[in-house]
Amino acid sequence: MTTEDPTVSNGARALLRTLTDAGVTVCFTNPGTSEMHFVAALDAEPSMRAVLTLFEGVATGAADGYARMADRPAATLLHLGCGLGNGLANLHNARKARVPVLNIVGDHATTHARYDTPLQSDIATVARNVSAWIRTASSPAQLCDDALDALDAALGPPGQVATLILPADVAWGEGAQPRARKPKPSPSRVTESFIDAAAQALRRGRRTALLLGGRALRAPALLDAARIAQQTGARLFAEVFPTRLQRGAGLPAVERLAYLAEFATLQLAEFDDLILVDARPPVSFFAYPGKPSELIAPGCTMHTLAAPEQDVDDALRRLARCVDAETLQPALQGAWRPPRPRGRLSAEKVCKAVGHLLPDDAIVVDEAQTSGVMLPHYTAGAPQHDLLALTGGAIGQGLPLAVGAAIACPQRPVLALVGDGAAMYTLQALWTMAREQLHVIAVVFDNRAYAILNVELQRVGARGAGSRARAQFELTAPPLDFVQLARGMGVPAERATTGEAFTAALEHALATPGPHLIDAVVPNAFSGLRLRLLPHLLSSLNGLPRPLAQAVKRRVAP
Amino acid sequence: MTTEDPTVSNGARALLRTLTDAGVTVCFTNPGTSEMHFVAALDAEPSMRAVLTLFEGVATGAADGYARMADRPAATLLHLGCGLGNGLANLHNARKARVPVLNIVGDHATTHARYDTPLQSDIATVARNVSAWIRTASSPAQLCDDALDALDAALGPPGQVATLILPADVAWGEGAQPRARKPKPSPSRVTESFIDAAAQALRRGRRTALLLGGRALRAPALLDAARIAQQTGARLFAEVFPTRLQRGAGLPAVERLAYLAEFATLQLAEFDDLILVDARPPVSFFAYPGKPSELIAPGCTMHTLAAPEQDVDDALRRLARCVDAETLQPALQGAWRPPRPRGRLSAEKVCKAVGHLLPDDAIVVDEAQTSGVMLPHYTAGAPQHDLLALTGGAIGQGLPLAVGAAIACPQRPVLALVGDGAAMYTLQALWTMAREQLHVIAVVFDNRAYAILNVELQRVGARGAGSRARAQFELTAPPLDFVQLARGMGVPAERATTGEAFTAALEHALATPGPHLIDAVVPNAFSGLRLRLLPHLLSSLNGLPRPLAQAVKRRVAP
């Protein structure tokens, strides 16, 4: 019906109708003059929710968080190349997460581009790195087909970033008609030979692990993976930074690969075969002098069961059947919570309090960096929750991701655990949380440092670093007052310096609708740490299970 | 001497030595793991001042502000493609300003790039839009030559953005030697025929204007331009958004072209000849349905006296000689200050207070948008000052620019006049002001709106805009509390709601070292404004002189 609506005529209106008809009903915005017709069309299209942000990195990170939870893309509305540029870091994270995002980037009218005015830039080039699909709309008549092509590209599978550049005169031009999206074929099935090869590897009796990423970290795939592990003795690992990991009591426990290559190498050391399921071959995040980038043991054979563009659920179901695990009851994580933390606050105690209180069906956004090493451990037995991680390594993702997740799932509490350094990149997200009254609890690990860089300075073997170098990691002078920063954007906030105070603040925030920020003042666990670094990290890193931690300790203790 | 220093050996150390020897002694940083060797080398090179920022857009905007005032480039230190992406908007502004900036962008070790790890991206493509020069350093032995090539490219003339991509293994690799920069030839002289053509146009007796940009807005060029105007009756205009305009009592008064094309067209309507001096042909910022992009009158002849890459000072001197104006005393702006404003605060009263108190030799950063329309008028007769404007239209420039200007000129007070919306893009600049104890006074025009977009919505002729559209411009729910935001980053702050309070706060801030923020709560002059827009703006826009304002009023009043 809507496709012939005679009231819809200019490009912007027809575009909005096309998007909402196709299920894109949220748009994270930071508009400018070239987007004014899109903005004006919002009143004609109330089924599009336009969520204003004060910085484009918030809009793009929110679109990522929304899509991770809603399993459909949001749109962004960005102002020319510079607006897109401001959103680039979180689009990078979305790309690495294989999450669908549909960017609408306004541009000058086509007749105006040749004047090289102040805001003129080559938007397509700005978009190149992050976008699997880029097109500049050329006419109102063609615009809605362009939008549906963009949406198809975004949806993949796998999810991708698609960027539709919308010149102002295409938005304001008449003659546009909404278009209806045609259903797309489902993701391709993995061919039988790959299932057989994986099954053979599992049956061979060698030490085998499955590395799960993407869709494989969510039910039903995750349950089938656990059945396979149960039946064959294979170990399950998750990618270091999962897009969305379903976990908690009643779900299979999956050990995440460690961020530090030194430990990930040890996690993988014993395996002769590694089966990739919607995951990339494991490599270290950065390179370090004299150390290999690849993390698997020499001689380990890698197999790919399913690639991101394939039907991962189906592949794991068939593999489970193939190894006679189809009807097994997989090992599931038992319910368990740490006690309330007491005394002077530390990052570990924050993680403990989160594990103690995490409500059912929460969404946990983890950008806690060094402060979060104990988080997987203390929340392992908490009620079922989704964990969203920093997929692309571009910090400043946590708070925006929480905005989008909360808008996708208004009934679920969202905890955003963020380092103080990370929080400052996209702090403007707090304002959108307040404006939209989202139930997001932002916990800032306030250790007044880029603590991870103290660690990395050691790891890269940089010599000669003294006080001038270390000053580059210090957020002490002046300290950031996150309580004032949050209140300045309309978000209620408290500071906690003890386990008791933090737990009380978190209880209050969980029980009270709307956004909250808790400024968790914690010591920097890694300041001054030098050669003693590795042993110190051992027992906690990425929640390594105790037996592995012991094994690691034996190997690396001085 | 330094070129053979045997203690300098790894790439990072040799690079720092090369840069400081060549006069690049400030680096605005936001480093990550891939930059750790550069950071470690800071202790060996104390003549490099590393200024930490909490967001890369602050670093790049600060580098722009520094170069505008120091007339030499600063370096930035950015973390891979995502760090560069975060800095892109202000690099765009620097590019449009023709300001030299030298980006050092860390990258993965060359051996690591093939693994497509989370932070891997195509940095050169991210850099493409803003950079006139891009190179990836390939070896420690070659690195310092690369850096000098980058510096030469940045210096131009005209100034440009140069991006040197520094893989981690080139930074940590041994065998690098510092290099000394060879002096470059001065900018090319304008050929005589262009001087003659301009002189002929001026002598022809037709109505002629000079449009000044870049270097032409600074002494000695500005004085020669004023002599030419004095002698020939030509009118002087400045580009809408000058990189750096020297003005105030005792300098020639130059009328800036209006941002709104409707008015700029009227400013230029009477001229038969327009002579461009380090300026681009005047065009409207955006396109509007049914309106021309070009601002000159039909039939107006444009001439170019000097292009940005040429010796502008020399060209204006020769033109002055050619029209026998060389020894004239040009008309200079007299000293004049508005009185102290009283009563309920408005944007106009803020501008009045600035004009009343502006100290000698101040630097004024103008990102005030709609709130700043009266600024040129009220500061015209204030003591001499430099005005830095939003050259590329990418908002979020004001506070970072002030950081850089203050570091370039530690003895000069810096006033950053910023809209509330603009301030929020790069608010993290406040923390660097506090950390470095810069004498920057940030004045936030707190009208709780993207006020300019209310104007633009009218100008683009968008129909059907209602409450949902207008909500995209409203920063009211919740209001931003800039006092808390500033204090949260260690910057003393006050709120002013009356002329008296604002003036007292500004007096205090000017007299007290270190940074300050004044939250100037002002009404949004343009809310609800519709068809009455144009006449309302007339008397004030961009400080149009009264006769022109009258002429405009006659033409556009309904």
Tally of contiguous helical segments of chain A: 23
Total beta-strand segments of chain A: 18
**Assembly type:** homodimer
Strand count, sense and barrel status of the largest sheet of chain A are: 7 strands, mixed
Count of spatially separate domains of chain A: 3
Rg of chain A to the nearest angstrom? Answer: 24 Å
Most extensive contact: A-B, 103 and 103 residues
Would you state the CATH class of the largest domain in chain A?
Alpha Beta
Q: Could you estimate the helical fraction of the residues of chain A in percent?
A: 25-40%
Indicate the proportion of strand residues of chain A: 15-25%
- Give me the side-by-side strand order of the main sheet of chain A: 9-14-13-15-16-18-17
Assign the CATH architecture of the largest domain in chain A.
Answer: 3-Layer(aba) Sandwich
Structural class of chain A: alpha/beta
Low-confidence stretches of chain A: 528-536, 538-547, 551-558
The CATH topology assignment of the largest domain in chain A is: Rossmann fold
What is the H level of CATH, i.e. the homologous superfamily of the largest domain in chain A? Answer: Thiamin diphosphate (ThDP)-binding fold, Pyr/PP domains
The rounded distance between the terminal residues' Cα atoms of chain A is 73 Å
- Overall mean pLDDT score of chain A? 92
Shape of chain A: globular
